[in-house]
Amino acid sequence: MGSIVRFENVGLRYGSDGGSDGETLSDLNFALAPGAFYFLTGASGAGKTSLLRLLYLAQRPTRGVIQLFDEDVVTVPRERLPGFRRRIGVVFQDFRLIPYLSVYDNVALPLRVAGVEERDLDAPVREMLAWVGLASRSDALPATLSGGEQQRVAIARAVIGRPEILVADEPTGNVDPEMAGRLLHLFDALNRLGTTIVVATHDIHLLSRVSNAQTLRLEAGRLSDPTGALRYPPRTGA
Amino acid sequence: MKRLLALFPSVRAADRRLLREGRLSGPMPWVLAIMLFLTTLAAAGGLALSQAAREIGGDLANRATVQIVQADAAARERQAAATLEVLRRDPAVTSADRVGAAEMATLLEPWLGAQGTDDLPLPVLIDVGLARADAVPALAAGLRTVAPDAGIDDHRAALAPVSRLIGTLRWLALAIVLLMVGATGFVVVLAAASALDTHRGTIDVLHLLGATDIQVARLFQRRIALDALFAGLIGLGAGVAVLALLGRQLAGLGSELVGSVSLPFWSGGVLVALPLATTLLAAATARWTVVRALGRLL
Questions:
Q1: Residue A137 resides in a domain
Q2: What is the ipTM metric for this complex?
Q3: Does residue A204 sit at the B interface (CB-CB below 8 Å)?
């Protein structure tokens, strides 16, 4: 099976910041299989968020090639990027919910961006809210929700468009262990539906909680390969 | 037309909520309202001066006055009769009417009082209508032989300084309107940039969810266009109120020259078009500003 994401000799430099060679990310070479589940680990400052930003097209690399869905997104015209972004769901570390929109409107946002008619929008939004256990909070504003509830809204918003890749940056960083387990269960369920999942975390206890998950480890901007995900053809999820 | 309508996009209610804030919030609409008020006054001034220039150029410039100054009443009357005969035969003259004694008395009353002017050797005045404004020199030459004491006053020459002043003021009014249009554009650019800054977080999220630049620009474009429309209507309303007041005061002066300063009947259409034009300008400028700013993002 081919890869859904491929990085070749990718490097990223922010101004004059970076490691010893001046780059925040250096010589990244890896491929992600469609339908697989990946943890991206590493200490704080290792470059996990930077790698995810490249993955969800918030940033272009300084060098190298990034292929998404078999297309080189580094050289693709800017006007085509929204089409790629709609195929990627993102759960931001700080949630990035729009504070003056209700839970319902926040979750509906990707569908509205994609041009889905209002009459076709209610059912999937209600279904998604039920899936994350927030059906009764659809009219609430984000500020009135707990951290875990906000996180679930962010997840619902990330997956409502049925993305082919879901990228989550430290999704369990702000929740208690029980809620972390529930969130991972949601990701696992989504993965079983065929979505490729990439979860960045510095919590090594999470790694054993998802069967079949592979681990990519970043150290000072370089990728190591503790589960062999990079050396061998990537395995697909269950 | 399609491109014009695209400047004023329909955005569904749910998407409108993405840019919080109500109508006429922030300083931008009020600055636009003040600018529209001033633009309305400048445009109305320009239109009124154009109308005045037309009236002066048409009615007054095609008129002349023949004046026969002769102390001897018999000689004066003889020359007046000969002058009227020459004038009425001339194809360049459309009318030649002697100003009557009663009218003369009325004209002189402010200076000589109401006691009567029968004993005074008043000059004969003949009001002449001309088919062509440039016929005066030929008429003067023709009158010299039959009425040596006749002089002819060309109204056009007398009013030339007034015409020049009106022309200058008209250009000034146009320049003010154009400057206001330019300033409106700058205000909208600043307002759009400020709104982009205010909503940076929302825009980033929309961007990463796959919104196109045009989708995001539409939100700002509609918001700014509606603000500009409301502001324009307020500015126009205030401007029209001031013009109505000025019109009443001008009419009260009773001056023929000042009375020629009036708005042509079609000027209402021009003034109403100002807020609409401002709205379109604001929408186009907002779209351009937002698309340009988003173009700098990945």
A1: yes
A2: 0.87
A3: no
Q: In what order do the strands lie in the sheet containing A71-72?
A: A25-32, A5-12, A63-68, A71-72
In chain A, residues with a C-beta closer than 8 Å to the C-beta of B21 are: none
CB contact under 8 Å between A85 and B209, yes or no, is yes
The ranges assigned to domains in chain B are 2-57+160-295, 70-148
Q: Which residue range forms the structural domain that includes residue A102?
A: 97-162
How far apart are the C-alpha atoms of B243 and B259, rounded to whole Å?
Answer: 14
What residues of chain A, 71 to 90, have a C-beta less than 8 Å from chain B?
78-79, 81-86, 90
Q: Does residue A231 lie within any of the structural domains?
A: no
With tokens 């209002």, the residue in question is: A118
Q: How many domains does chain A have?
A: 1
Residue B274: other Cβ atoms inside 10 A: 22
CB-CB under 8 Å, A113 with B210: yes
Tell me how far apart the alpha carbons of residues A117 and A123 are, in angstroms, rounded to a whole number: 12
Distance from CA of B11 to the nearest CA of A (A): 11
Domain for residue A106, yes or no?
yes
Is A32 contained in some domain? no
Q: Can you read off the two tokens belonging to residue A121?
A: 């929008």
Please report the number of interchain residue pairs, chain A to chain B, with beta-carbon separation below 8 angstroms. Answer: 55
- Distance set, CA A94 to CA A72, A158, A195 (Å): 29, 13, 22
Per residue of chain B (298 residues), what is the pLDDT tens digit?
555 555 556 666 666 677 765 555 678 889 999 999 999 999 998 888 888 777 776 666 688 899 998 888 888 889 899 999 988 888 988 998 988 878 887 877 777 777 766 677 888 899 998 888 788 888 888 888 888 888 888 777 777 788 788 888 889 989 998 998 899 888 888 888 888 888 888 888 999 999 999 999 988 888 888 888 999 999 999 999 999 898 888 877 766 666 666 788 888 888 999 999 989 988 899 899 889 988 888 7
